[in-house]
Amino acid sequence: MAKHADLSIDFLGFKCENPFFLSSSPVSSSYDMCARFLDAGGGGVFYKTLTTTIPEECSPRFDAQRKEATPFIAFKNMEQTSDKPYQENLDMMKQLKEDYPNKLIIGSIMGMDEDNWEQMARDVTATGVDMIELNFSCPQMTYEGMGSDVGANLELIDTYVKAARRGSHLPLIAKMTPNVEKMEPSAEAAIKAGANGLSTINTIKSITGLDFDSYTALPVINGKSSISGLSGKATKPIALRFIANMAQDMNLQGVPISGIGGIETWEDAAEFLMLGARNVQFTTSVMQYGYRIVEDMISGLSIYLAEKGFEKLEDFIGIALKNIIPADDLERDFKILPQINYDKCVGCARCYVSCMDGAHQAIDWDNEKRKPTIKEDVCVGCQLCLQVCPVYDCITPGKVLFKEEDQFGKGSLSEWKENASNKRDIIVGMYDWI
Amino acid sequence: MSNSTSIGVKEGIDLKPKQGYLEETVPPYTPFMAMEEASRCLLCYNPLCSEGCPAGTNPGDFIRAIRFKNFKGAAEIIRSNNILGGVCARVCPYEKTCEEACARSGIDTPIHIGQLQRFVTDYEKTTGFKALDPPPATKEKVAMIGSGPASLSAAATLAMKGYKVTIFEEKEKAGGVLSYGIVPSRLPQYVVDEEIEHVTDLGVEIKHNTKVGRDITIDDLKNEGYEAFFIGAGMQVSATFDVPGSDLEGVTTALEYLAAARSSGGKSDIGTHVVVIGGGDVALDCATTARLLGAEQVTVLYRRTREEAPASRLELSHGESLGINFAYTFSPAEFQGENGKVKIVKANGTRSNSAMKLEADKVIFAIGQKPEDISKVVSDIGLDSKGFVVTDDKGKTSIPGVFVAGDVASGSAKTVVHSVQGGKIAAESIDEYLKKGGE
Ligand SMILES: Cc1cc2nc3c(=O)[nH]c(=O)nc-3n(C[C@H](O)[C@H](O)[C@H](O)COP(=O)(O)OP(=O)(O)OC[C@H]3O[C@@H](n4cnc5c(N)ncnc54)[C@H](O)[C@@H]3O)c2cc1C
Ligand SMILES: Cc1cc2nc3c(=O)[nH]c(=O)nc-3n(C[C@H](O)[C@H](O)[C@H](O)COP(=O)(O)O)c2cc1C
């Protein structure tokens, strides 16, 4: 075995074996399912959200966003809360905690009104689980005043957190909705009302595709469809931005965050951790590939951290936050020209097409020799060509040019000069996984 | 198109192979290609490919690791199961093992498991990642006879358990057939050397130019404190059969011919008109070697048909693409010479009354190998009628404390991957034996 770092980390006072959790959803909807994930190595589970009455569900209830030949990259669901009787769920949660004392078991609840929130919090506490997640974020509830309606309403958040607090002494984690422009106000309201931690994102309101015969969105339910929640890999960039925003928010300093949204690989997970999440949760990737994906998350992250010399996971949490800065603070006095490695170039001209039609017409194309050439005087260094090139290591960052300062201390476009000494710090992050 | 005069007639075909003897025929995957290929994997539940690997290299798990961007984890899976992962990636008969079992064949073509394995082991090298972290060697001393795949695998397994392992190799280089047999265009020497480094990195010592039974005896080793012995001596003798003229200069054997070419980096006497006798992978390696090193005409004589030839289909078509002639259902009848040197090969049809006369200045017997006399290494050891060491399925021999695997073991499947597996199993038996205090 190679050297592996210890992945254990504290979350709201519980020492978790590792930061990998099932998020509340069908993948965590019974004792057996949770147990299989924990046996595969998971650090804990957020149990499927309970309501006191079982919701009516539709069929079919899923659609997927595909992209050509790749496996699906985003997933739309119309599902609500648990489809099992309330008491049965409570019993299973109790059993789970008894059988897995070292794993973090978190119940998830969604109430209809204050009394209901309080009662559920009390019932879940009685099962012996470690914490309770408050679901303020399901975007397809069929009852008004539930789900993401709550997450966008500061007053309701306040009322329901307080209600849950009356019913439980356990740490409360508010699960926030991304269907808002800013998540911070909702998060602050939850913390102020007595929540101890945050988890996000829940699914994003969406329409994935339409049916071309019935003229309806997908999935088609007896000729009709609805807007509902999107999850999966393609939503990760959106999730990451919410995590970064909250982790950088002055009023939320020290509030533990659990990151969710499109996590498939250890690298996806590591990105959330670098932006300040203390652990991560996932659903869609498990629905697609099974609990076994946690094995590669554990292996990949622990090897990476050991190689980077991190003694404990704690030191890695939030390590990237200082480097996420407002766009107007970025340096704009240099450009990195792409360079083409002609030994690798297969002459497809994808770089040429993209530069012609999507950028600055800075690539010449010799059709006879099937050879692209970069016009250095026209190229702005946007590197679109590098993004679209289908050959590994063919177009790479090359020459770095710096703006010369004029007498007013400002650079002008015509005066780009090469200065190789700065280059090493500037060119990173292209094939950083290689 | 410009140099073809009429349809169907190609003129000026360059008959020289484009590829060099020392260049690997199959180009490596780039990371993009590896991701693309791993994405074709169906990620089956209880995948059959993993069951299909004789050495338990576990392709199902390492391809999944690639798919989920855990390249180093993939390297760990490969190395901890198969210390010669980089070698097997290049020389395994996948079409009969993991790839044959691949469920993707039910849709189109199997995943290129060998290529993915090669990508991972190359990646391991480029990044300098150490997939294995051995414990300190505090346990008993174990001696390995020979440094082929069987010994290397047994040695690595024992080193990972904390034994002090020394390999004794009669030749200058370690690796056995890997270093002296297989054509470099399939398995370059640098790959073999790096794989051996993986073994020595675990603390295994290799004593070169030391033949057990000649330069040192088992009794000497016992006196030096070795408490268990592993025989991985392989098959060092080429089989021949009686053909008049066999003693002519220019008539040689596969092992000699290949070893001379490989250890001189292709500078040995290759011959101009070469005739190879045999129809297995070794015969193909001889023919390919000759062709890649510039022999003008290479003819393979095989007594049965193409369909019956044991050589892998891939190697056969590769040989054909290199312009090697294949004369199926022919067997040599006589070698004729001039001034003591071979000049002509006369061959007869095995299934017809055909006869053939071939010009030849090199004739190579590639009809199989057999072990040297192992009783000279360990006296009184149980051997079968053909001289192979008799063993159970755990690598035990008739003598307590002496274990065996690889080609020299009676009944073993004679491939690298089976030798790796045999070595692993025998190492477990050695561990068990020593744990019980040598009983
Ligand atoms: C030309 C050729 C091509 C092949 N191609 C393939 C292939 O493509 N794929 C595949 O899977 N298999 C292939 N094989 C078979 C494969 O190489 C063998 O099955 C494998 O190498 C056997 O491993 P081993 O460790 O038992 O023996 P070997 O590889 O033969 O190694 C034995 C070693 O022991 C040493 N030795 C012997 N006696 C003593 C002694 N008394 N003291 C010290 N050292 C000693 C020898 O010098 C040698 O180095 C090929 C074989 C040949 C000959
Ligand atoms: C089918 C399905 C059902 C879900 N049910 C719940 C739920 O009951 N409670 C909840 O808090 N989140 C629920 N979610 C949201 C997930 O827990 C998670 O926040 C979201 O899917 C984003 O993560 P992912 O991209 O890893 O799937 C559900 C998601 C899916 C796909």
Instruction: Using the alpha-carbon principal axes, give the shape of chain B.
Output: globular
First and last CA, distance of chain A = 21 Å
Biggest interface: A-B, 27 and 24 residues
* CATH homologous superfamily title of the largest domain in chain B: FAD/NAD(P)-binding domain
In terms of structural class, how would the helical and strand content of chain A be classed?
alpha/beta
**Cα-to-Cα separation, first versus last residue of chain B:** 74 Å
Low-confidence stretches of chain A: none
Number of strands of chain B: 15
* Distinct bound molecules: flavin-adenine dinucleotide, flavin mononucleotide
CATH class of the largest domain in chain B: Alpha Beta
Count the DSSP helices of chain A.
Answer: 13
Q: Mean pLDDT of chain A, nearest integer?
A: 92
How many separate structural domains of chain B?
Answer: 3
Order of helices and strands of chain B: HHHHHHHEHEHHEHEEEHEHEHEEEEEEEH
Strand order of the largest sheet of chain A: 3-4-7-8-9-10-15-16
Strand fraction of chain B? 15-25%
Number of strands of chain A: 21
